[in-house]
Amino acid sequence: MRLLSFQILACLGLLFLPSVLVAQSTGVDYPYPVQFLSLNMESKPVRMAYMDVRPAQPNGKTVLLLHGKNFNGYYWQTVIRWLTANGYRAIVPDQVGWGKSSHPDIHYSFHRLAANTRHLLDTLGVQKVTVLAHSMGGMLGTRFTLMYPEIVEKLVLENPIGLEDYKTFVPYQTIEQQFQKEKSATFESYQQYQKSYYPVWKPEYDDLVRVQASDLKSPDFNAIAWSNAVTYLMIYEQSVCYEFNRLKTPTLLIIGQEDRTVVGKNLLSKTEQARHGLYPELGRQTVKQLQSGKLVELDGVGHIPHIQAPERFLKALGDFLK
Questions:
Q1: 66 forms bridges with which residues in the sheet?
Q2: What pTM, to 2 d.p., does this model score?
Q3: Alpha helix segments (H runs only) across the chain
Q4: Residue 194's pLDDT is what?
């Protein structure tokens, strides 16, 4: 009878399993209090971390912020501060598999991450949102909007990846190969990769490297590395670029013109690298597919406009939100 009760509790997500199944990154102080939502994924109880930041003078609007592959909710702090100062409530999840959320060994999909995010909004009683999504978050934000168009008032895609189908030109790597790559990561390798995000590197950008590299010191680093590898394949295998024409929601593309990000770029020849990740061209191609789209091009800006050029980014965001 006691064994049966244990199984029932586990299936309902009311019983936490050992840390190897619910591994989470620690050691980084987020700019606002972090809360946790309990979920059950593939019979594994997990936790989804999030910040829910409310303005002093609310305007009744909520913005959902979706982070990229090599990031978490931490890097939205400047945007959160601007949103709340202008009356917006900001909901900022770490997706399961990232940041302070659990890193379970499961099948990751944008559909499931979107469903988790919808459950978070339902739990918080939020019925309408504007979605602001960066990098990999752009793929998730697109999937979320396609799945739940009734709750998304506007969609903002900030240098989203997935504007082209990587599996059509990037050589395939097995999960085991990707896992070994993730396990061999160092502060220096993270820093070198993040340098590709900016036309000119500045010392203050090391803060985001520090946040990413905090995982290296986690006792659950193997579980985190496995999640990183599996979610790389999620990006590789689950394209959204063929579905932009299905988006009916008013959509803003904010594109840093110096961005040349390609997932798996190091697997390409120099000739192939030069042919892909051309964000000026990709942005213009994508906005033509949208039923209600607008494109803002930021000259001299790389992959993370809200970090590199926050004033210009927030001006474009503010104009669209109004």
A1: 133
A2: 0.91
A3: 2-12, 77-85, 110-123, 136-147, 175-183, 187-194, 206-213, 221-237, 270-275, 279-289, 305-308, 310-321
A4: 96
